[in-house]
Every structure is written in C-alpha cells, then in structure tokens.
Amino acid sequence: MALCDVDYQTLSQALHAYAGTSLDRRRAELLEARLEHIARSRGMNGVTPLIDHLRPPLDDSSSELVDGLVNCETSFFRDTPAFEALRAFVLPRVMERRAETRRLRILCAGCSTGQEVYSIAILLREHFPNFCASRVEITGVDISAKRIERAAAGVYTRREVERGVPSAVAARYFQPHDGQYRAVGTLRAMAQFRRANLAESWAGFVGYDIVLLRNLLIYFDASAKAAMLTRAHEALLGGGYLLLGAAETVSAARRIFDRAPWGGYPIYTPRKRAEGAGST
Ligand SMILES: C[S@@+](CC[C@H](N)C(=O)[O-])C[C@H]1O[C@@H](n2cnc3c(N)ncnc32)[C@H](O)[C@@H]1O
C-alpha cells in the first residue's frame, strides 16, 4: 500500500510541528510498513484510518507513531572521523581546560538507542583512562521513550556490536546477556539517558563541554535548524565544542559558531555570549 499524498502531507506537517523534523521520502517504503504494522496492531484497516484516528497535532501520547516516523539509524563509532576528531582534537583540549575540576560533561542530542553514548564512553576508557576516574557524565537524549529505554539497558545484538566495535575491544566492554550483549557496568556508570523533545525545549541541558548533534538536523528546515543550533550554543560552556554529522554545517546559525581548526570533521566552537549569559 502506498501512502497517498494527502496522508503524507498530513503526517509530515504534524511531525514537523511536533518534533521539528520532516518525513524522509527516501524511506517511504519503510515508513509505510511501520504505519501498516501500527494500524494492524490497533485492528485498523490501513493507514488512512490510523492517521484520521490519531488526529494530528501529534503530542507525547503519539509516541508509537512518532517512533515509526523518525529515522533512528545509528551504530557504534558511526563515522570514524568523528571519533578520531574527539580523540585527537576535542578531548585533549577540553581535558586541559578541566584539569582542575576533572569534570567532563558531554551531551548526545538525538542519541537514538545509545550506541553513540557508549562509543564515547569506550573511547574515553581506551584513550584517557586516567580522566575516567574523575567525574565523567555522558547524557543521551532522544524524543523516543522506547529508544531511551533501550539505550539505558545497554543491551545490543551481536550484529549491532560487531557493526562498529572491533572484537578485541568488544570483549573488554560487552558481556553476554540473554543471547545478546550488554555494555559493562563501568560504561553504564558513565552514561545517563533522558527522554525529551529537543524541538520543544532544552530546559535543564546546560553546562556541557561537548555537544554532539549528529544526523538529526538533516531532517530539519532552516528555521528549526537555527533554533536547535541556538539551543546547542546555550547548552555549551565557553571553550566547548559542537560536533555535527559529517555532512552537516551550522549555516543556519553561522553567526554564533566558529569552525574549529580541524580538517577531518565538522567541529564548531561557540562564539562568546553577551556579558552575563552562560558560564565557563
Ligand atoms: C538518525 S538518528 C541519529 C542518532 C545518532 N546521533 C547518530 O548519529 O548515530 C536521529 C535521532 O534523533 C531523534 N530525534 C529526532 N527528532 C528529535 C527531537 N525533536 N528531539 C529529540 N530527539 C529527536 C530520533 O528519535 C533519532 O533517534
């Protein structure tokens, strides 16, 4: 069954109003299959009655539908150059600034099922073991309660682990768990997860050394992108770093960020705020 143009438009507008993101036409088949599944599980005959029944605007009670609509593609160490940039450029600089407090706070906005968060925890354990003894806090946030629940459990299939983690490294950081693999306690202790709609509010997300906002903005229009980037700017400490997806830029908010001098991956530093705003 193909989603008709009217249903597509209705859903796309509702999703944009709720989550800031648009439907990805390239994923139409997957989208239709998911919607069919939700409709069937509710005893409905097709997607149109489902859309009528849910009557957009969407809200937090429409989570099953939103989960079906929003792309959640992720993997461990997705985009190796991003992790190389963290290891070789971002983390050494941030740690130098934090040498006294030995406190490190990282935000993964749109963390999906948590692989990005645990990848950073592994990177820190492997390359900066001394710093891990101090207060490291990696917070993953996603609009999907289901994905956040999975992330917090830290349980992954063999395929998911093998997709990004070399086997010798996996042996150190994952334990067999009911036929799958669970991130070890030392990684989970560095991670925390929260469900939030970041298109609505970033309340409580402040004071970060590093913000990752990767592979989320591509589905946002220019004004939603600008709003999200402004909030990321507010969430960052002075001297902090913003990492976007490999193909993403801050063009929607270029006046508040500078590109960091690192060639291999898009990294930005927040320009100074007006006197009195934010902290260092
Ligand atoms: C394509 S995944 C990217 C995951 C990860 N950052 C990565 O690069 O591998 C995008 C994630 O952003 C989440 N997302 C989309 N809109 C959001 C919003 N308004 N607030 C919070 N999370 C959102 C989705 O649920 C999805 O899990």
Set out the fold topology.
Layout: H1 5-19, H2 28-41, H3 47-54, H4 63-69, H5 80-97, E1 103-109, H6 115-127, H7 129-132, E2 135-142, H8 145-153, E3 155-156, H9 158-164, H10 167-173, E4 174-177, E5 180-183, H11 185-190, E6 191-195, E7 208-213, H12 222-235, E8 236-244, E9 257-259, E10 267-270
Helix pairs in contact: 2-4
This protein binds S-adenosylmethionine.
Describe this structure in words.
The model is unreliable at 276-280 (pLDDT under 50). The chain is globular and about 60 Å long. The longest helix is centred in the N-terminal third of the chain and has 18 residues, at 80-97. It has 280 residues and is of the alpha/beta class. Strands 6-2-1-7-8-10-9 form a seven-stranded mixed sheet. Strands 3-5-4 form a three-stranded antiparallel sheet. It has two domains: 5-69, Chemotaxis Receptor Methyltransferase Cher, domain 1; 80-270, Vaccinia Virus protein VP39 (Rossmann fold, 3-Layer(aba) Sandwich). The N and C termini lie far apart (54 Å). The chain has twelve helices and ten strands. It binds S-adenosylmethionine (SAM). The site of S-adenosylmethionine has 23 residues, from loops.
